[in-house]
Write a structure and sequence with these properties.
It is a single chain. This protein has eight helices and seven strands; from the N terminus they run βαβαβαβαβαβαααβ. It is an alpha/beta fold and about 260 residues long. α3 runs parallel beside α4 and α4 runs parallel beside α5. The longest helix is centred in the middle third of the chain and has 29 residues. It is globular and about 45 Å long. Pfam families: adh_short (PF00106).
Length: about 260
């Protein structure tokens, strides 16, 4: 698919311990790309690294830290001696679904610090390096919530609208360079996302995906690979990706026959 454009490249993926980040790591490795994997759970990073290397002949470095910690982000990027050809800003979460007048401030801070500030920190430190070499690709994992809002999602939708704006403005800031900037904006993807949003309530999380055929992490990873493997003169700015059973943030067709 990629005409070997990704072979030998070095890909930095945040939030690589589960979901879209993990699936993206495997698919890049399948294309012959080397990996820098980051996440909070070091045991998972080690397990994923070892499993990928048992399947593919690629190099992998792991960095365990919380992306909300700006100094840790800086330390990670500065400690990478080799090239960073592609940055996948995948780390993100939803926390809570309370109305704005009842929401928990800790949930708000967690989403803003991760989805916006963490993404900005990594972009800041990596883009500086990319600009010196006049090449690279920044791919942000956004959401359908970055294109439309819904009740109970005031802050989550706000953070994903921010990701959309940051993607557009970053492309403008890097105008005239060889650096590409992209986003992928999925709808319902069955990962740990809803379990995190509902603070570990698995029943509530499962109900989000009940009686539909949701997207999978691999579906989104395939699109990220497609974006990354286009010729250098092709920049895909954004892709809105929904399961066939979903037509907007709030329109979801459910059928017990599925």
């Amino acid at each position: 698919m990629s005409n070997n454009r990704l072979s030998g490249k070095w890909i930095l993926i945040t939030g690589a311990t589960s979901g879209i980040g993990k699936a993206t790591a495997y698919q890049f490795a399948g294309e012959g790309a080397n990996l820098y994997l980051t996440g909070r759970r070091e045991d998972r990073l080690i397990s994923i690294r070892d499993d990928i290397q048992s399947k593919f002949s690629v190099e992998i470095e792991i960095y365990s830290f919380d992306i909300r910690d700006r100094e840790a982000c800086k330390s990670c990027v500065e400690s990478i001696e080799g090239p960073i050809d592609i940055l996948v800003n995948n780390a993100g979460l939803a926390s809570g679904k309370d109305p704005v007048d009842q929401a928990d401030f800790e949930d708000w801070d967690k989403m803003i610090d991760t989805n916006v500030k963490g993404l900005l920190s990594m972009t800041r430190f990596v883009s500086e390096r990319m600009k010196k070499s006049n090449e690279g690709h920044i791919i942000n994992v956004g959401s359908i919530a970055g294109h439309e809002a819904y009740a109970g999602g005031s802050v989550y939708c706000g953070t994903k609208h921010a990701v959309k704006a940051i993607t557009q403005a970053t492309k403008m800031d890097l105008h005239g360079t060889g650096i590409r900037v992209s986003a992928v904006s999925p709808g319902l993807v069955e990962t740990e996302f809803s379990e995190v949003r509902f603070h570990g309530d698995k029943e509530a999380a499962d109900s989000v995906y009940s009686d539909i055929n949701p997207l999978t992490a691999d579906d989104i990873a395939e699109i990220i690979i497609f974006m990354a493997s286009r010729p250098p003169h092709v920049n895909i700015m954004d892709t809105i990706v929904l399961p066939t059973d979903q037509s907007s943030s709030t329109m979801v067709h459910r059928s017990s026959k599925k």
